[in-house]
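Reviewer comment 2.1 asked that we show a complete input and output for one of the modelled complexes. We chose the s-citryldethia Coenzyme A case, as it is the one discussed in the main text.
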Amino acid sequence: MTKATLKIENQVYELPVVEGTEGEKAIDITKLRSETGYITLDSGYKSTGSTRSAITFLNGEEGMLRYRGYPIEQLAKKSTFLEVAYLLIYGELPTEPELEEFVTKITRHTLIHEDMKKFYEGYPAKAHPMGILASLIGALSTFYPESQKSEMTPDEIDLTIRRLLAKVSTIAAWSYKKSLGFPIMYPQNRLSFCDNFLYMLFAQPTETYEVNPVVSDALNKILILHADHEQNCSSSTVRMAGSSQASLYAAISAGVCALWGPLHGGANQKVIEMLQQIKDEGGDVDKMVKKAKDKSDEFRMMGFGHRVYKNFDPRAEIIKKSTDSVLKELGSNDPLLDIAKQLEEVALSDEYFIERNLYPNVDFYSGILYRAIGIPTEMFTVMFALGRLPGWIAQWKEMRDDNQPISRPRQVYIGETTRDYVSIEDR
Ligand code: SDX
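Response of the prediction step:
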């Protein structure tokens, strides 16, 4: 086995080197503290691996992304979101009977307990749907107490997973209906996952609603592209919360909250707000690029840059093409798409972005595609969560199957050294 040597205060230590199936190398520091008394420090975990994983491989330099070895370009073109969900969670593409059972179970679990409708009454009219999603997913663990057991049987785990994949689409669609003051639409078992979500989102009780196949296909594609992304902020949150043996619902609720941040999944909403601002202020993309480069300005070009991709984000490329074709097929155009393309062109020829390897990420065009299929801006991050759900579940399941210990990082203390209490009169 290859070893790394570390010299500390004239003492030489040997640490094992781990190599992944794609040639990635890591120094295993599991025993570092017990052998040397030292820990490592890596704010934001830029050089720290938290786990071995077999779910998703991405190569930031090559702009490569594969789910269980399958390139996302092939899955986006040939697969369905629920088939990809099965692949991520169980590790293999399902056989026909396996897919049939998975889809049927999910279809039959899309209803949520009638008492959960009362939660919606309590939110303010303009409640952000991510806040509703996080709390209602957490609340699912109270309606299904068996999900709280730290030792669930495989069947209980499978049922809990199917319930979650089914009910999140209903919870998400109903949060949108509630935000408009519209009546909620119950799920229809005769519809596919994507068609059903679009139905619950856009149908009205006063008229028949026909799902547009172009829109449904675009939704299927964008959900697949969001399905997993290895140890990103929200997936790591799910693993962290799940490592204490909190229920799957509690861990996923934590992941939803982490995704909500504007530096992570919340960026897709911020991108549209940024593009709209450029449009409202006369379309001057150079001004926005200048603002993004100004260190005295905390503004960042939303939808640009990535912790791992130091080349193009393969998902952004596919979403950009899909947005073009959906807008063409629907016979509509979106001025924000033209502004986005101009912004991309200006930024990618600018030294500041080039030397920092800042390219459009998954969030840069996704908002325009969501708009093209009729999804409102405040629902964009909910769409990201809906897409990422199978990935979060897969990461949680892998962590449990590997019997990983509770996550509990160390720290370097930089506060006051010991001192005695001073009574208030003497302060
Ligand atoms: C997602 O991790 C994942 O996989 C996430 C995700 C997934 O699928 O789960 O891919 C989804 O979250 C995509 C990212 C969405 N967020 C945004 O679009 C927000 C804007 N992007 C940035 O905030 C930033 O690029 C991050 C958060 C995405 C990455 O930040 P890093 O890796 O911590 O990089 P950094 O902040 O250290 O930046 C390095 C340099 C800095 O400049 P210097 O100090 O070196 O001079 O690049 C600059 C930053 O100021 N920079 C930007 C910028 N992003 C980085 N400058 C202007 N605009 C930006 N968008």
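The CA atoms of residues 123 and 132 lie 8 Å apart. We note this here for comparison with the apo prediction described in Section 3.2.
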